Amino acid sequence: MKAVRYAAYGGPEVLRLVEAEEPHAGPRQVRIAVRAAGVNGIDWKLRSGMFGTTGPLPAGSGVDAAGVVDEVGDGVEGVAVGDAVFGTGSATYAEYAVLTNWAAKPSGLSFEEAAGYPVPTETAIRILGQVGIEPGETLLVSGASGGVGSAVVQIARERGITVIGTAGPRNQDYLRSLGAVPVVYGDGLAARVRAVAPGGVDAALDIAGSGVIPELIELTGDPARVLSIADFSAPEHGAQVSSTPTGTAAALAEAARLFDAGAFRIGVSQAFPLAAAGEAQQASQAGHATGRIILTVP
Q: What pLDDT does 283 receive?
């Protein structure tokens, strides 16, 4: 099969489309013929060596994918060969990939869009729970226009939470379309937030890691109600961080339910062929995209 691999840590140029051995489904796993793979920040961070040596090389890239089941491992129930699913696994930038968590793909959801759902949806549900935001409260989301931010805004709004989202000037209308009250990030953020939230902000999520933790604490008045997924200095200010996935299978099922209810969409902002995985990861690293970046597999 064709798969994207890297034999050394480094920039996007280390990614190569090569012939590789097909993986096979083990116990409690399924294998899919991949139709599309999601591109996440963790993908280029691992490839760059940001986290040091994380395993033997050469290694594959990617954790999110959507496709058609063609192998079912021992102990798996409720899914059969031929079913369309989306989920998380390993080395998903490939023609075939093994998933460890998955959900049935709604019939009206394209493989391309579905491939972008898993990590953002799991992350959004996890951090909303961890920060303790409740219906009727007001949530500030710093960096709200990307994949995770888009998921947070929609899931929070569906739960009856008022959301204020920060993004650049060109993404203000996008946030408004998701149901958030948009504000522009940058100097003077606290004053702009207070102008649209005279009743105050109950909790804040930092998605972008742009050094705003002190301002978010100032706005909430409580470091414990501030959480970041991108700034690991947050605990130095008394705020929380979150990075370990939990409840992935349940999050995928919730994404499918919300999509079917017409309450959840994360559009594809850029699509690249498998051979252009390096370009896709560069686009992910550059940021500023609305929605998701994905790779397509013919």
A: 94
Q: Which residues pair with 140 in a beta bridge?
A: 164, 204
* Range scoring the smallest mean pLDDT among 15-24, 207-216, 252-261: 207-216
Instruction: Let me know whether 125 and 113 are in one domain.
Output: no
Beta strands in the chain, from DSSP E residues, in sequence order: 2-6, 15-19, 30-39, 59-60, 64-72, 84-90, 96-104, 138-142, 162-167, 181-184, 203-206, 226-228, 240-241, 268-273, 292-296
- Answer for the pair 88, 111: CB distance below 8 angstroms, yes or no: no
Q: How many helices and strands (H and E) does the chain possess?
A: 9, 15
Is residue 257 domain-resident? no
- Classify residue 168 by burial, with Cβ atoms within 10 Å: 0-12, 13-18, 19+: middle
Phi, psi of 103 (to 5 degrees): -145, 155
pTM over 0.85: yes
| CATH code of the domain in which 104 resides | 3.90.180.10
How far apart (Å, rounded) are the C-alpha atoms in residues 128 and 137? 12
For residue 15, being part of any structural domain is answered with yes
Q: In terms of Cα–Cα distance, which of 125, 156, 92 is closest to 242? A: 125
Among residues 241, 258, 278, the one where a domain terminates is: 241
pLDDT band at 219 (very low <50, low <70, confident <90, very high): very high
- The answer to whether position 210 is within a domain reads yes
CB 297 within 8 A of CB 66: no
Two structure tokens written together for 96: 């075939």
Mean predicted lDDT score pLDDT of the chain: 96
**Residue 214 belongs to what domain range?**
121-241
Contact criterion met (CB below 8 Å) for 95 and 297: yes
pLDDT band at 54 (very low <50, low <70, confident <90, very high): confident
